[in-house]
Design brief:
alpha/beta, 12 strands, EC 2.1.2.2, Phosphoribosylglycinamide formyltransferase, chloroplastic, three-stranded antiparallel beta sheet, Rossmann fold, plastid, 24% strand, phosphoribosylglycinamide formyltransferase activity, seven-stranded mixed beta sheet, 6 helices, transit peptide, single chain
């Protein structure tokens, strides 16, 4: 079915290399994603994600203000800036700072995050990056995988939108598991952002978000 909805304007938040950001931007450029990344927000102005943004003509904003930086923005400044860009959705892609309540209120049900475990397991403050994969292996869990969820005022507790299973092998290292999970992250995040940009996310009466299947809107994934 041909997409007739308005093309969405996206802001991406990163703290590191930004590989998920790159996957989303590339999907936008090749036309599979009905949206455009208009601005990148980071708390580390020299991170790989920020460098990629600059190389691709995407404005970079520093938030929150770091001790050794003079040009960081306050929460209200960030809200004002995103509104000037007319941003529809905020995508957290390895952004390690807690999102302030002011921003969550301004973009209710419009901020997504990706986490490298099957939430609610192995989430919360301190669970990020390789720490997650080490904890998964140490627990004896047989499965892991990425979770995409809407963002609330706490770490990793918002409503889950999508997940994908990745087996934890008997002799896995954290690095090996991380590589397999990241491969799935890149695919899953693009698929979810495609759905978001096409207005295929619907909310069940109990507040759980579901993704309509493109070919059959009466079915959900």
């Amino acid at each position: 079915a041909q997409v007739t909805v308005r093309r969405k304007k996206l802001a991406v938040f990163v703290s590191g290399g930004g590989s998920n950001f790159k996957s989303i931007h590339e999907a936008s450029k090749r036309g599979s994603l009905h949206g455009d990344v208009l601005v990148l927000v980071t708390n580390k102005s020299e991170c790989g994600g920020a460098e990629y943004a600059r190389n691709n003509g995407i404005p970079v904003i520093l938030f929150p203000k770091a001790k050794d930086e003079s040009n960081g923005l306050s929460p209200s400044d960030v809200v004002d800036t995103l509104r000037k860009f007319e941003v529809d959705f905020i995508l957290l892609a390895g952004y390690l700072k807690l999102i302030p309540a002011e921003l969550i209120r301004a973009y209710e049900k419009s901020i997504l995050n990706i986490h490298p475990s099957l939430l609610p397991a192995f989430g919360g403050m301190g669970y990020y990056g390789m720490k997650v994969h080490k904890a998964v292996i140490a627990s004896g869990a047989r499965f892991s995988g990425p979770t995409i969820h809407f963002v609330d005022e706490h770490y990793d507790t918002g409503r889950i939108l999508a997940q994908r299973l990745v087996p934890v092998l008997a002799n896995d290292t954290a690095e090996e598991l991380a590589t397999r999970v990241l491969n799935e992250e890149h695919q899953l995040y693009v698929e979810v952002v495609e759905a978001v940009c096409e207005d295929r996310v619907v909310w069940r009466k109990d507040g759980v978000p579901l993704i309509q299947i493109k070919e059959n809107p009466n079915e959900f994934r």
